[in-house]
Amino acid sequence: MTLDRTAQVRCNIGPDEIADWGPQLQVSFGESQRVATRQRTFSDVATGAVGLVVDSCGMLALVLDQRSAAMDLGIGPGDQITLAPLTDAPQTGTTSPVSMRAR
């Protein structure tokens, strides 16, 4: 994962990899867990909710509407984030470290 200049949390996961997981996903990072809802655009994300959109590179990104997902969620360089199907079953998912570099 990387953080872009708009502070969305860009994933190295394509939408096809989670196509069967439903419209909502469990997002785990550090000691925190949130539910992210797939949306088409930033503005489709409800106030206070976490959205999952396809970014300009065709990959998934965690976003908040008109706010920094990285800052508000407390996600930074080196943090691992796990996306998993939202179920009552034990969670398995895809984990990726966050890295930042100067542009």
Topology:
Blueprint: E1 2-3, E2 9-10, E3 24-29, E4 32-38, E5 50-54, E6 60-63, H1 69-73, E7 80-85, E8 94-97
Parallel strand pairs: 4-5
Antiparallel strand pairs: 1-2, 2-6, 3-4, 3-7, 5-6, 7-8
Can you identify the CATH superfamily? Bacterial fluorinating enzyme like
CATH fold call = Elongation Factor Tu (Ef-tu), domain 3
How many DSSP helices? 1
Could you tell me how far the N terminus lies from the C terminus, measured between alpha carbons in angstroms?
Answer: 15 Å
CATH class division: Mainly Beta
Rg over CA atoms, rounded to whole Å, is 12 Å
**Portion in strands:** 25-35%
Q: Topology as H/E string? A: EEEEEEHEE
Major β-sheet, in short?
8 strands, mixed
Count of strand segments: 8
Structural class: mainly beta
Overall average pLDDT: 82
Q: Which descriptor suits the 3D outline?
A: globular
CATH architecture, by name, is Beta Barrel
Number of domains: 1
General description of the model:
By secondary structure, this protein is mostly beta strands. The protein has a single domain, classed as Beta Barrel (Elongation Factor Tu (Ef-tu), domain 3), CATH 2.40.30. It is 5% helix and 35% strand. Strands 1-2-6-5-4-3-7-8 form an eight-stranded mixed sheet, with no helix packed on it. It starts with a strand and ends in a 6-residue tail after the last strand. 25% of the residues are buried.
Summarize the structure.
This protein is mainly β and 103 residues long. It has one helix and eight strands; from the N terminus they run ββββββαββ. It has one helix spanning 69-73; strands at residues 2-3, 9-10, 24-29, 32-38, 50-54, 60-63, 80-85, 94-97.
